[in-house]
Amino acid sequence: MCGADGQIPLKRLCSPGQCSVLAVRDNATLTRGGIVNTLNQGNQWGRYDTRRDSRRHHPRASRLSTHRRGRAMSDRPEMFEGTDRIWMDGEFVDFEDAQTHVLTHALHYGTGVFEGVRCYDTEQGPAVFRWEEHLDRLYKSAKPYDLDIEFSKDELTEATTELIETEGFESCYIRPIVYYGFDSLGVSPKDCPTKTTIAAWPWGAYLGEEALEEGVDVMVSSWRKHASSQIPTNIKTTGLYVNSMLAGEEARRNGYTEAIVLNKEGNVAEGPGENIFMVRDGEIYTPGLAESILEGITRNTAITLAEEMGYTVHEEATISRGELYTADELFFTGTAAEVTPIRSVDDNEIGEGTKGPVTDELQSAFFDVIESGDREEWFHYV
Ligand SMILES: Cc1ncc(COP(=O)(O)O)c(C=O)c1O
């Protein structure tokens, strides 16, 4: 039931019976279970409430949100909006027919590799951001698992382009996945077929539109990231994401928007679905690949843009937990999270507790690129 409680006006998000979100009141999301979910919006103690109103609104961020809403974006950014057709192993199939067997190897053992890519509605029209780099990473991810992708990069590009065109998306999130299907359920996937699927659907700002402006409150997770000596962490394997899920859910249960995960040595690794950057004394630091991080493509974009703007970037940094608390600025990068400021860690305010000037400058540069779409080497135009 959506509706008001008679005390404080509620913003209605959906028709009765259509979704589990009842309403947004102030900064909290009320769900059917009555849970107050502070996703996107500060912590449950409202520590930053009084300041939030005075924060500057970023015109580019709001223009982008309009672009992203090309196809009825939900106020729940993480909600799946649906799509009509999915590309599976060389064919377009209807959404309902995009099925896989319950004895699929990847379902049991996490043996899949995938990508998360965004297509933006740029001034040059819909364009997939850093598609080549995402494709390269997909093939790299497949390598240690001997997953033999049966389609060429050109074929996957063609399938993706056709999918976006026929679905009529101006902007969307794209999810290619390659995984071991069913043959036998031994841990060895030797005789399992390789399945390849690409889906695309409209998706808003991962941590919420407001997060891009105001920043997010995060906690250091009690879960450590796998060491890269245990499982390759620089690539995107489905099985790795149980760690991300545990860390992210722990954070949300405790009223935070997102987690920061430390590596086995106790140094800062990354977020569950984001790389992390720190600003100190005007210089930028981000953990290196040896710290058990995903080799993020947005991380690379941010480093490139920051260096072009004249910043010194330490891209192989080792960052201690303590340095997080004393940082001038912190921000996440990721295809889903884009460039999201972090305004507190474990309830310690970072800088002024709002988006810092370096983050602001870099975020603006990032949005300029994806809004204009005119940096040709970074776009595949649809
Ligand atoms: C664990 C992890 N780290 C970092 C990132 C950011 O990577 P990218 O910028 O390539 O999306 C992601 C997102 O895919 C991720 O899942």
Automatic annotation (TrEMBL):
<dbReference type="InterPro" id="IPR043132">
    <property type="entry name" value="BCAT-like_C"/>
</dbReference>
<dbReference type="Pfam" id="PF01063">
    <property type="entry name" value="Aminotran_4"/>
</dbReference>
<comment type="pathway">
    <text>Amino-acid biosynthesis; L-leucine biosynthesis; L-leucine from 3-methyl-2-oxobutanoate: step 4/4.</text>
</comment>
<comment type="pathway">
    <text>Amino-acid biosynthesis; L-valine biosynthesis; L-valine from pyruvate: step 4/4.</text>
</comment>
<dbReference type="InterPro" id="IPR043131">
    <property type="entry name" value="BCAT-like_N"/>
</dbReference>
<protein>
    <recommendedName>
        <fullName>Branched-chain-amino-acid aminotransferase</fullName>
        <ecNumber>2.6.1.42</ecNumber>
    </recommendedName>
</protein>
<dbReference type="InterPro" id="IPR050571">
    <property type="entry name" value="Class-IV_PLP-Dep_Aminotrnsfr"/>
</dbReference>
<dbReference type="GO" id="GO:0052655">
    <property type="term" value="F:L-valine-2-oxoglutarate transaminase activity"/>
</dbReference>
<keyword id="KW-0808">Transferase</keyword>
<comment type="similarity">
    <text>Belongs to the class-IV pyridoxal-phosphate-dependent aminotransferase family.</text>
</comment>
<comment type="function">
    <text>Acts on leucine, isoleucine and valine.</text>
</comment>
<dbReference type="InterPro" id="IPR001544">
    <property type="entry name" value="Aminotrans_IV"/>
</dbReference>
<dbReference type="InterPro" id="IPR036038">
    <property type="entry name" value="Aminotransferase-like"/>
</dbReference>
<keyword id="KW-0663">Pyridoxal phosphate</keyword>
<dbReference type="GO" id="GO:0009097">
    <property type="term" value="P:isoleucine biosynthetic process"/>
</dbReference>
<keyword id="KW-0028">Amino-acid biosynthesis</keyword>
<dbReference type="InterPro" id="IPR005785">
    <property type="entry name" value="B_amino_transI"/>
</dbReference>
<feature type="region of interest" description="Disordered">
    <location>
        <begin position="46"/>
        <end position="75"/>
    </location>
</feature>
<dbReference type="GO" id="GO:0009098">
    <property type="term" value="P:L-leucine biosynthetic process"/>
</dbReference>
<keyword id="KW-0100">Branched-chain amino acid biosynthesis</keyword>
<dbReference type="GO" id="GO:0009099">
    <property type="term" value="P:L-valine biosynthetic process"/>
</dbReference>
<dbReference type="GO" id="GO:0052656">
    <property type="term" value="F:L-isoleucine-2-oxoglutarate transaminase activity"/>
</dbReference>
<feature type="compositionally biased region" description="Basic residues">
    <location>
        <begin position="53"/>
        <end position="71"/>
    </location>
</feature>
<keyword id="KW-0032">Aminotransferase</keyword>
<dbReference type="GO" id="GO:0052654">
    <property type="term" value="F:L-leucine-2-oxoglutarate transaminase activity"/>
</dbReference>
<dbReference type="InterPro" id="IPR033939">
    <property type="entry name" value="BCAT_family"/>
</dbReference>
